[in-house]
Design goal:
The structure holds two protein chains of two kinds. Chain A has 25 helices and 22 strands. Chain A is of the alpha+beta class. Chain A has four domains: about 210 residues, no CATH class; about 180 residues, no CATH class; about 220 residues, no CATH class; about 170 residues, no CATH class. Chain B has seven helices and twelve strands. The longest helix of chain B is centred in the C-terminal third of the chain and has 18 residues. The N terminus of chain B is likely disordered. The chains are: A alpha+beta, B alpha/beta.
Chain lengths: ~850, ~240
């Protein structure tokens, strides 16, 4: 046949195919509802995970300079840069300065802890501050009135009942609330827990307020914007200016790294759940598609009998499945957008970053693309057998076996692998996702091997009983046994890993809630005020547990003369060299447990000796007798380690990474920190009022409120992770339902025959339960074990939390295996036997 | 001759009726629920079958022939009248009694074969004997398959057998446990004339050899004529 001859034939074929598709469409694609449900729920989970996790990472990664506030930034704690260094930096680019500190704002009816930020006229160098009235920040702050203006977060107004136009005091100065703060572009640069709402004021006014004194716990940030078009040269030029005292030096990629790392860790759990949902969704969709093809075997044979070619049959069913896939994908994506959008809105508002619908749309489209590739593979695997149904099957009784074309199977495996790889690569942590995919591959491999071994084992048996015979006949089919074990096993693998991770995450989050939290923490207490405040607290029977100590900051620069970057041996402890860390002096032992060495004598007055905390020991393999070089208040010290302390974190009490003997720090400008317990709220509230009246410079942090907030956040996170794990169980159950449905028709037919020849309903049920239990057991053991191992790696390597899988992770695989057995047994055994008057006749004659 | 049936639960024992009457239906009725209301398919049937007798049941489609097989085979409970099969009152018998009766004493052959696709010919034929706990079930099934001319197809699955071969497997299965009653519902309906004749010949030979009774539903007048007697039913009633 020539090409000219073929063209009309092809046109006819296309016309016929269109007619058939239209007819099938008119008949509805209801038979694929289980398939659509599997696709929809997996797409929903993937869409939500990708939009939240990957979308957030993309948004954050893009705004490094905005989050940092410049192309390069240096931060000084307690003391500003020297004029000389400041001027040198100013000569390299556009310099903007801000100062941040915690303080108490005094309103007419009370006080509130606030995070004050003094900004200069150039702030912000990147991005823009959004205020309630949509004006420029500089215009708002520059307004001349009775008092200088302040822009405050709406939560401060809600908490105090104040309104725009009202006044409040910070230190010695009175401010007018000029506007509300909606978005602060460099909020993430603070990099610490905010104890109260943000208050923006002019830097020169803040410096004039009496709040910033030498030694105050203020952070001075200097951001530089490149004007020469070579930000990397600017970075190097600023870095070269590094003075001999410590400063925190950051570039946009550092800021991005810190933020991204934080987001990546929190989205890792979501990513794992997404991959698991993807795998479960695909296996469910495959099983459901296979069930559909099996049910249509006779129709397909009739099409073939009527002259349809195998290619036409394949194209027709692929088109129907594509329509069902599109419907499932659309449903899932719509649901994930509906869930992800408000969540993103809330999270980005909390992080003070902007998000765009385009980012979410991109993520959802990528999910649709990845899932579509996977569905092509799953669909081809299911449909391949359809194309091979012979026309004669229409005339035969019983089910003709559906055997996939090996060529189609290879292509399908290629598509499935590609989709899994694409899913892994598009997650925030491709390495981890790749590991999860590898784990999945190992699980599938082991399940195939175990199912094959079981099939070979039973095939050698020659049972004489009816039940044994049916079980052997069914399990002896290697392909069928492996298919079922894989489909159930993948679900168990995913659910076990996620439930174990969820349980560990919940416990880790719960552990974050301080169990010995103080009621009140006082910052910026001047040394001269300490004695009077201690006296006030000790006289009040409603207050107890007072702890007070100097509060300073230090930056580590060298260990035994080696720069800290080179001396660090534990990367997970790198935070000890990132920026300034807590430091105090103490004459007396603090009561902390000593891991090595002894305390200095209470009257020791020689060169400073130091007591590092356990984390420092682990970071540098420190021993008593080693030396550490550190910078305090701009001065460099090298001291000998005389002991190593163990501190129990998560108490919210003042704890210090390094303690030193009193001299010479005792005489240096610094403030004190005090913490105390309250027997009742009245006593604590009364103290807060007294301190506000007598010591306006002191910042009182109401830890009761912070702990309550923390509990709320953790409850939310715990609930969210539980919800994700629960959704995954639903996805697993759907996949299981698809699997059970995949051969329910043939099981019904078999049950009917068994009834005809005298098998009781009980015997059929026991046979099916035994067979399903064997597969369920393999799936539970292998899926559970591999899921457990996968969960362990994810929890310890990615989430970096303790492995606490809980009882649920142990019980669930077994429970799911049993559920699979019971469901398959009931449907294939008891449920398959005809019940009700006339049902059997209909089946016999149908 | 009196027959004692061993029941699965061992609690009941039923005495068989005298050998001369193996099936007795008196005003047997059967109706099914349907969305349009109750559908009466058997509206008062009276039939007596004697031991060793081959009885043809004829009638138009939808007259209730298959339902009659289902009631006598204990697959459906009559909704009225008396149904006594091999001395067992099927209207009073429990599910397990009816199952045991089918397992040991009744063989059924259908137009559409009803074989287990995943089982070989010999496994399919051996099923009733396996259920009855016979130790040499497959050996006996192989002998029976050889008897129906399928000795060379023992390990073939149904999908590899022709329609006539599949029906012969179904016949071998029906006769394998030496039943006292064989129910055949249009056994040649799916077969060509020559194959159908061969299948009928095999069935008749087996009935004569084993002394079983057979109730044969057929549309074919020529086949009905070969039987000992013919009962015609129409609209759920025996036509006189």
């Amino acid at each position: 046949m020539t090409a000219t001859d073929r063209a009309p034939a092809q046109a006819t074929q296309r016309f016929v195919l269109r007619q058939l598709i239209a007819a099938e469409w008119a008949a509805g694609i209801f038979g694929l509802r289980l398939f659509m449900a599997c696709v929809a729920i997996a797409t929903f989970m993937m869409g939500a995970v990708w939009a939240l996790g990957d979308g957030l990472s993309t948004m954050l990664g893009r705004g490094g300079a905005t989050f940092l506030g410049g192309d390069v930034a240096v931060t000084m704690t307690n003391v500003p840069l020297s004029e000389e260094t400041r001027d040198a930096i100013a000569g390299l680019g556009v310099l903007s300065e801000v100062a941040e500190l915690r303080s108490s704002a005094q309103f007419e009816d009370g006080r509130a802890a606030v995070e004050v930020k003094g900004v200069d006229a150039l702030y912000p160098l990147y991005g823009s501050v959004r205020v309630g009235s949509a004006r420029d920040l500089a215009d708002v702050l520059a307004e001349e009135g009775a008092h200088p203006g302040a822009v405050v977060e709406p939560s401060l107004l809600a908490r105090t009942g104040a309104e725009v136009g009202d006044v409040f005091r910070l230190g010695d100065r009175t401010f007018t609330i000029a506007d509300t703060l909606i978005l602060e572009p460099d909020r993430l640069s603070a990099g610490r827990f905010m104890v109260g709402p943000r208050v923006l004021v002019r830097l020169d006014v803040l410096q004039d307020s009496g709040l910033i004194q030498r030694g105050s716990l203020a952070e001075y940030r200097y951001r530089v914007k490149d004007e020469a078009g070579a930000p990397e040269l600017l970075v190097e030029a600023v870095r070269a200016l590094r003075p001999d005292y410590g400063w925190e030096f950051e570039t946009p990629s550092d800021a991005g790294d810190v933020v991204l790392r934080t987001v990546d860790r929190t989205t890792t759990f979501l990513g794992m759940a997404g991959i698991a949902a993807f795998a479960i969704g695909l296996s469910g969709a495959w099983a459901a598609a296979k069930a559909w093809v099996r049910r249509r075997a006779r129709t397909i044979a009739l099409y073939r009998l009527s002259g349809a070619t195998p290619g036409m049959v394949l194209a027709l069913h692929a088109a129907i499945m594509a329509m069902a896939s599109a419907a499932g994908l659309a449903l899932g994506l719509a649901a994930s957008a509906a869930v992800a959008a408000p969540l993103l809105e809330a999270i980005t508002a909390w992080l003070n970053v902007a998000w765009s619908a385009a980012d979410v749309l991109t993520q959802l489209l990528s999910v649709a693309g990845i899932f579509a590739i996977g569905l092509i593979g799953a669909g081809l695997l299911a449909l391949s057998g359809a194309a091979r149904i012979a026309p004669g099957a229409a005339m035969r009784s019983g089910d003709a076996p559906l055997r996939a074309d090996p060529r189609h199977a290879s292509i399908a495996v290629g598509f499935l692998t590609a989709s899994l790889a694409a899913a892994a690569l598009s997650l925030p942590i491709p390495g981890l996702a790749g590991l999860a995919t590898l784990g999945l591959g190992v699980a599938v491999g082991l399940l195939t091997l175990a199912a094959g071994a079981l099939a070979r084992l039973v095939a050698r048996r020659r049972p004489r009983s009816f039940i044994g015979g049916v079980v052997v006949q069914s399990l002896g089919d290697t392909g069928n046994t492996a298919t079922r074990a894989i489909a159930v096993g993948i679900g168990i693998f995913g659910v076990t890993a996620i439930v174990a991770a969820q349980s560990s995450l919940t416990r880790a989050l719960t552990d974050e809630i301080p169990d010995r939290a103080p009621a009140l923490v006082l910052l910026d207490v001047q040394p001269a005020q300490v004695a009077a405040i201690e006296d006030r607290i000790e006289r009040d029977p409603g207050l107890s547990g007072l702890q007070s100590s100097p509060f300073m900051r230090m930056t580590l620069t060298a260990v035994n003369g080696v720069p800290v970057e080179q001396a660090l041996i534990r990367q997970d402890k790198s935070w000890v060299i990132e920026g300034d860390r807590s430091f105090a002096w103490s004459a007396e032992p603090t009561g902390a447990e000593l891991l090595a060495g002894d305390w200095w004598a209470p009257d020791y007055s020689g060169p400073p000796l130091i007591s590092p905390e356990e984390d420092l020991m682990e970071a540098f393999d420190l021993k008593v007798g080693d030396t550490m070089t550190y910078s305090v208040l701009g001065r460099s010290f090298t001291s000998e380690v005389v002991n190593i302390r163990k501190e129990y974190h998560r108490t919210m009490r003042p704890e210090f990474l390094m303690l030193a003997s009193p001299d010479p720090f005792r005489g240096a400008p610094h403030t004190w920190i005090m913490s105390l317990q309250g027997e009742n709220d009245i006593a604590v509230d009364s103290l807060i009022r007294d301190l506000a009246a007598d010591y306006p410079n002191i910042t009182a942090i109401d830890a009761r409120r912070i702990v309550a907030q923390l509990r709320d956040v953790i409850s939310g996170a715990t609930f969210a992770s539980f919800l994700i794990a629960a959704l995954l169980v639903v996805a697993g159950a759907l996949s299981l339902a698809a699997l059970v449905a995949s051969d329910v028709d043939s099981r019904r037919q078999e049950a009917l025959v068994f009834s005809l020849v005298g098998a009781s309903r009980r015997e059929v049920a026991i046979a099916r339960l035994t067979e399903a239990a064997a597969i369920g057991l393999i799936a539970a053991v292998i899926g559970g074990l591999t899921g457990g191992v996968g969960g362990y790696f994810a929890v310890t390597a990615a989430l970096r939390i303790d492995w606490q899988p809980g009882l649920a992770a142990l019980i669930l695989p077994v429970a799911l295996g049993i559920a699979a057995s019971v469901a398959a047994g009931i449907v294939g055994g008891l449920g398959a036997a005809p019940r009700g008057r006339g049902q059997l006749i209909r089946q016999l004659t149908g | 001759m009196a027959l004692v049936l061993d029941l699965a639960d061992g609690a009941q024992r039923a005495q068989a009726a005298p050998a001369e009457t193996v099936v007795s239906l008196t005003q047997a009725r059967l109706s099914y629920p349907s969305p349009e209301g109750e559908v009466s398919v058997l509206r008062g049937i009276d039939i007596q079958l004697a031991a060793g007798e081959i009885t043809a049941v004829t009638g138009p489609s939808g007259s209730g022939k298959s339902s009659l097989i289902a009631v006598i085979g204990g697959l459906e409970k009559a909704t009225g009248g008396d149904v006594d099969v091999l001395g067992v009152d099927l209207n009073q018998a429990s599910e397990s009694v009816r199952t045991n009766l089918r397992r040991r004493d009744i063989g059924i052959v259908f137009q559409s074969f009803h074989l287990i696709p995943a089982m070989t010919a010999v496994q399919n034929a051996a099923l009733p004997m396996v259920l009855a706990g016979e130790t040499e079930a497959e050996t006996a099934a192989a002998r029976m398959l050889d008897r129906v001319g399928l000795g060379h197809r023992l390990t073939h699955r149904p999908s590899a057998l022709s329609g006539g071969e599949q029906q012969r497997v179904a016949i071998a299965r029906a006769f394998a446990a030496s039943p006292r009653l064989v129910l055949a519902d249009e056994p040649t309906g799916n077969l060509d004339q020559a194959t159908g004749d061969e299948v009928v010949r095999v069935m008749f030979d087996l009935v004569r050899e084993t002394g079983a009774s057979m109730l044969l539903v057929t549309h074919d007048p020529a086949l009905a004529e070969k039987c000992d007697r013919t009962i015609a039913i129409d609209s759920g009633l025996v036509r006189t």
